[in-house]
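Onboarding guide, step 5: your first structure request.
Type a short instruction followed by the sequence, for example:

Predict the 3D structure of this protein.
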Amino acid sequence: MAYTQTDLDNIKAAIAGGELTVRKADGSMVTWRTMAELIQAKNAIEVELNTASTTVMRPRYQQASFSD
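The system replies with structure tokens like these:
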């Protein structure tokens, strides 16, 4: 499942408010059993969003060709 920044913002707001129920970006609601589970979900979403937005830079190589 692909998470969005809205999902992360909603979870952060729930943590700040001490709530265990969060509305997802698609409109559904999820309730966690403990605050620790909610924080784990937040961390997992942050990792996924950071991984998805990271561009891997690879060096380009070009071989020179010389002829007479």
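Each response can be followed by summary notes, for example: The longest helix spans residues 35-53.
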